[in-house]
Amino acid sequence: MTACVDLTQQTAWVVRDGKVVVGPTVVRTGFRGYATPAGTYRINKRDLREWSDPYEVWLPYWQRFVGGIGFHATTTYIHDATLGSHGCVNLLHADAVAMWDALQLGATVHTFGRRPGT
To answer: What's the pLDDT tens digit per position in 62-98?
Structure first.
């Protein structure tokens, strides 16, 4: 199972056995100064609800893949290109649930491209 994040197009999807099984869907990634890094990683922590100490918010459907960066649901408006995360890949609730159901600890995450303006 591999999660793919196109930072340039702000989209994500999950592939299993060469077939897309989740998405593609819109995401919001890190804005200027907090760019989501491109690379290949593995999910190394999962929690249905993780507390973010630095930002003092809950991160529903948390799936960390590098440093303090991971997938999680957000309740804020995701379709505004002027907004961004502090590096995480923000998903709408239904998409975060679908990613949670499709992925597991150790799953590959491949991020590529570069968010415009970062």
So the answer is: 999 999 999 999 977 777 777 889 999 999 999 999 9
Residues with Cβ within 8 Å of 111's Cβ and at least 6 positions away in sequence, in order, are 4, 5, 7, 36, 37, 38, 39, 40, 41, 89
CATH code of 89's domain: 2.40.440.10
d(Cα 100, Cα 104) in Å, to the nearest integer? 7
Please check whether residue 56 lies inside any domain of the structure.
yes
pTM of the model: 0.94
Number of domains present in the structure of the chain: 1
* pLDDT at 54 (0 to 100): 87
CB of 92 within 8 A of CB of 78? yes
Partner residues linked to 76 by β-bridges: none
